[in-house]
User: What shape does this take?
Amino acid sequence: MTIKAYGAHAADQPLGPLDISRRAPGAHDVQIEIAYCGICHSDLHTVRSEWPGTQYPCVPGHEIVGHVSAIGAAVTRFAVGDTVGVGCLVDSCGQCGSCAEGLEQYCESGMVGTYNGPTPDAPGHTLGGYSQRIVVKDDFVLRISHAPEQLAAVAPLLCAGITTYSPLRHWQAGPGKKVGIVGIGGLGHMGVKLAHAMGAQTVAFTSSESKRAEAKALGADEVVVSRHADEMAAHAGTFDLIINTVSASHVLDAFTMLLKRDGTLVLVGAPSEPHPSPSIMPLVFKRRAIAGSLIGGIAETQEMLDFCAARGIVSDIELIPAQQINAAYERMLKSDVKYRFVIDSKTLGE
Ligand code: NAP
Ligand code: ZN
Assistant: This one.
C-alpha cells in the first residue's frame, strides 16, 4: 500500500513529498492512520546528517498520534478506532537486561528507532511519522486518554514529554527539590511543565530574552536569562538537578557551578559538535555529576501520558501543513518556536 510522506533524499536537500509503502499488518502489528506528528530537533539533526549514519530517503517524525485502522490477529490490547501514539522507538530485542527492566531505549542489541532504524521492510530502514500511516508492533504502541480536541498538542509528549519526564523521575524531582531546565524549546518547555507538576521548585534557563515572561506561564517559579552572569551567579550552588536540552554546543561550567553538592547536570540535548570539556574542579570539590539520558522506555512513556492526561498537560504548539516543514526547521534553528511545531497529517495528501 503506497502512502504520502514528507522526507529528503540527501542531507543538503529540502524535505519534499515522497511516496512510501508500509507493510501489511502482521499478527502482532497495529496499523495507525496518523493524525498529527510533532517536529523534534532530532528530526533536523538526522535529515541533515548532523549526526552520523543517516540513510536516505529519510522520513523523520517520532511524535506520532492517530487512530488504529487495522490490527493483526494476535493483537488484544488495541481495537480499530482507538486513539494511540508512537514515540521514538518501534522495536527492541526483548531479551536483554535493559529490555527486561522496561528500558527498551537502552536495549543492549540496539533499539529500533521510529526512523532511520534497521528493518526488513523496504527500503531497509524505518520511515517515520511525517507520513499518512504507520504499522508498529503492538508492544510499542501507546494509549492516549487525553480529550480528543487535545490530540495535536499531545503529539510532542511522545518525545519531548518523555525525554524530560524520564530524567525528572530518575533523579527524583519533586517537593523540596530545586530543578533547572536549560533551553526552553520543545523539550525544555515540557520539562518546565513536568517539573512544576511534580512539585519541584522549577527554574527555567533561556538564552532568549523574549521567553522570560512566557516561561513563568509554563510553570517556572523563576526564569533566568543565561546570558546575564549576575542572574546566574544568584543561583550558585543551589540546584539538586539541572536538565540541559540545548541543541547547540556550549560551555557547561556555567551550569555545573549552579549545582549543590551531589547535584546532577543531565544532558539530553545532543548537539552535533561536542561541548567544550567541562572544568574538573567544580565537579571534584562538590561531588557534582554530569549525566546523560535517552528518551524513556515504553512503560514509562505510558506512565507519562497518563500523568499528563490526569492533569490536562499538553504541549504548546503551532500547527502547520506539511508544506511548511522546511520553513519550520529554519525557525527552530533560530529558537523561534513556541514551543513545538506539529504537522497536520491530512495536509500530506494536498
Ligand atoms: P528545540 O525546540 O530547537 O529547542 C532547543 C532550545 O535550546 C532552543 O529553543 C533554545 O532555547 C536553546 N538553544 C538553541 N541553540 C542555542 C544556543 N546556541 N545557545 C543556547 N541555547 C540554545 O529542540 P528540541 O526538539 O527541544 O531538542 C533539543 C535537543 O535535544 C536536540 O539536540 C535534540 O536532538 C535533543 N533530543 C534528545 C533526546 C534524548 O533522548 N536525549 C530526545 C529528543 C531530542 P532558549 O531560546 O530558551 O535559549
Ligand atoms: Zn525527538
